[in-house]
Amino acid sequence: MATYKDAHAYAVEVGDILSKVLNVHITAETLPDGKMYFNIADRVLNETLKNNYSLVSDYTESVQTRLNRQAGLKLRAQRPDFDQDRVKGFINKLSSADDFTDVQWVLGDPMVNFTQSVVDEAIKKNAKFHNDAGMKAVIKRQVKGKACDWCRGLEGTYDYPKGAPNEVFHRHENCRCVTDYLPGDGKKQNVWSKSWKKEAITQREREKQALEDIKSNNGRTDAQEYRKMVKILGPDKMPPSLPKFQELKYNNNEEYRLLRHDFRVVSYFNSPVREELSDSQRRQAVEAYFSFKKDNILFGDHAIARYISRMRRSNGRVMYNYDAVKRIANKEFNYISSHLNRRVKYYNKLMLIYENDRDEVVTFMKTRKLSKKLRKINDGTF
Description:
With 382 residues, this protein is of the alpha+beta class. The chain contains 11 helices and 11 strands.
């Protein structure tokens, strides 16, 4: 059965394959003017590193699911977050040099190191999740090969998080140290009372204890959050009960993030907004937001407000409709903005501007003239 040690070996292999492929196909000779332009680096690294992240995250999720089952818990394995900031750093580094050969090293071991870090983050996130639920979490770091003095100094087994040094998940270039997550030792601790109790014997008892710990530790704040969200979103947009809400919150990070996004958008239109919208337009904005979301198009509050406010001119003329915007949203990105490196879809005079690290529309407009801040993505491609 696969373990986190196997996950590390898999990550190194996947990262090494990516590094070799990139170095074969991306050279100073294949790049325009021998330079790695931002749009090339952005498209290549985001696509390939997200693929590596997905492959390794699937592997670690399988490992953690098995560990949870062995512990008799029905807790969902936690997937690590994609480190967009680190990818952005790679992109900026590659595109900052006029001569690609000066920065080509970025496509070497940093690609392997990044892929390894997905395993480290998976362990860190699951250990924290279990610790927060009242279970004892133990982290082990083991050197591999001819390790340096720094890595040898970190080798050991630690109670997480209080007994572990901050650097336990850090790794330098060409580091192949292995981090592992060890289930608890048969005892559980309530993080509020600090009292220890003997681990339940049967799987049913273990599941009950885990859920009781979560409710005990976070029940009051979760209940306040749940009531507040029901008041804003209404019961039809929320889990039917507090326990169901807690199950979603602690077992499904993405669904919880989207639920919080729903809450933010609806709250925006229940309070004074900068856009001058009538009460009818505010209701239309909320309805349009959920309609787009149902079609897998996520709008931010400001973007959906602009969509509604600019749909009709003062003379009643309709400037665009839902289907027109939906068609644009389903097209490829074709521009990038120098402002926060946001991605843009501009077709038929309609423009959707997205966050650079997630598929959320942050602003919307109808315009004939493009800003000088926009660059066509296929400029300088190879």
